Amino acid sequence: IRTLLDTAFDGDFGDDDWEHSLGGVHALVRDTGGLLVAHGSIVQRRVLHDGRSLRAGYVEAVAVRPGRRRQGLGHRVMAAL
Fold it and tell me: Which CATH class is domain 2-80?
């Protein structure tokens, strides 16, 4: 997964970004040969609003391999999440 994210974000996916994407639920799309071509995750977080702690789901690390973009793979990831 990390290799896909590094490739998709052209090296602009740091260790902090990686840490934020861990846990939660992950959606993976593989091609017919088993290569991971798209990924996304939704991670539960707590946010404070008007003094109340609320649960929220943060969508993190949505990425599609550069050569496979514009084929609806990001949509498939988001639909699964």
Answer: alpha beta
> What phi and psi values does residue 11 have, to the nearest 5 degrees?
80, 0
Residue pair 63/39 in contact by the 8 Å Cβ criterion: yes
Is the CB of residue 21 less than 8 Å from the CB of residue 60?
yes
For the question of whether the overall pTM of this predicted structure is more than 0.85, the answer is: yes
**15-31: pLDDT as tens digits:** 999 999 998 999 999 99
Q: What pLDDT is recorded for position 16?
A: 95
Rounded Cα–Cα distance for residues 17 and 38 (Å): 16
Phi-psi region of 77 (alpha: psi -120 to 50; beta: other; left: phi over 0): alpha
